[in-house]
Specification:
The protein is an alpha/beta fold. It folds into three domains: about 100 residues, 3-Layer(aba) Sandwich (Cobalt-precorrin-4 Transmethylase, domain 1); about 90 residues, Rossmann fold; about 80 residues, Cobalt-precorrin-4 Transmethylase, domain 1 (3-Layer(aba) Sandwich), CATH 3.40.1010.20. The chain has ten helices and twelve strands. Strands 10-9-11-1-12 form a five-stranded parallel β-sheet, sandwiched between helices. It has a four-stranded parallel β-sheet with strand order 3-2-4-5, with helices on one face. Strands 7-6-8 form a three-stranded parallel β-sheet, sandwiched between helices. Helix 2 links the parallel strand 2 and strand 3.
Length: about 300
């Protein structure tokens, strides 16, 4: 049995930044640091930060007045920002800069009188954060079939933005359907889908030519991890999303199986290595890595975390 590791895979710059923000805040403030929701969608990451002292909460009223609060990488709505201000919370924003870009884009469209369509999954924290940043009419859809059913107030003043962790192919279909129905609609091509989501999906497409089975290491509630599994299936592969080694099923493998492994943007490389270790017990004889340039994207931490020195 052979294994080929996708390149790139795993943590993206936004996830690395978010984790470092929590770790740096703990260094500065100690254990009295609260994090609103999962900092990223991976319970292994969350548990590791809990062990360092981070306190994860689901609502702002769980944090004492004046406490330090970190917003997750997925971003929050304007309502949450105002509520934090009312409670005199010391906010450290770990929102991914690429998500912030979408928020600002949606706000600009709304301020110029456009109704905003968000291409994304309803209920996802990122989508709800973007929706909550727009004061005017806003709609959410995720499939091209929904475009025909959508009722808007002014078809001549429409714009769209996208969730950053979507499938490139599915999003392209939705955008094409929107432009076919409303020729004057404004919005980006696929540029709102983050570089890491795109590169990992492209790597799976390339990998699919040389493997019989795809394993995606990532959380079940991770949008980009689920999209990687779907890309594998769309390329004719049996594909499985696994959170850890407990999810592996020996029945998936045979002596001649060529296994491809990738990981979502919030999945630690340590978990990939644990999966490899377990697969060796199943009979893996060779492990190769795809050719590819390592990602060099880097996002600075907030200046407020380095008050006495230059930003990092």
């Amino acid at each position: 049995m052979q294994v080929i590791l996708a390149q790139p895979r795993g943590f993206c710059a936004g996830v690395i930044r978010a984790i470092k923000i929590v770790e740096r805040a703990l260094e500065i403030y100690g254990t009295a640091v609260y994090v609103l929701h999962e900092i990223v969608h991976n319970h292994h990451v969350v548990e590791a930060l809990k062990n360092q002292g981070a306190l994860f909460i689901e609502t702002l009223d769980e944090a004492p007045v004046g406490a330090v609060i970190i917003f997750s990488a997925h971003g929050v709505s304007t309502t949450v920002l105002k509520e934090a201000e009312k409670r005199n919370l010391e906010v450290i924003d770990a929102t991914c800069p690429l998500v912030t870009k979408v928020h600002l884009q949606a706000q600009r469209y709304s301020q110029h009188g456009f109704e905003v369509i968000i291409i994304g999954h309803p209920g996802h924290p990122e989508v709800e954060g973007t929706r909550g940043c727009v004061e005017g009419p806003v709609y959410v859809l995720s499939r091209k079939e929904e475009v025909k059913k959508l009722k808007v107030r002014n078809p001549n003043r429409l714009a769209y933005v996208t969730q950053t962790t979507l499938s490139l192919d599915d999003t392209r279909e939705v955008i094409d359907a929107l432009r076919k129905r409303w020729h004057n609609i404004q919005g980006p091509e696929l540029s709102d889908i983050c570089y890491a989501t795109q590169s990992r999906q492209n790597a799976v497409r390339q990998l699919a030519k040389d493997i019989d089975l795809l394993l995606v290491v990532g959380a079940r509630n991770s949008s980009n991890s689920n999209r990687l599994r779907e890309v594998g299936e769309q390329n004719g592969l049996p594909a499985h999303l696994i959170e850890d080694t407990d999810d592996l099923n020996p029945a998936w493998f045979s002596e001649k199986t060529r296994v491809g492994i990738t990981a979502g943007t919030s999945a630690p490389e340590a978990m990939v290595q644990k999966v490899l270790e377990k697969l060796r017990a199943y009979g893996v004889g060779r492990v190769n890595e795809m050719e590819g340039e390592p990602e060099k994207m880097h996002f600075r931490l907030p200046d407020s975390l380095f008050p006495q020195s230059s930003p990092r």
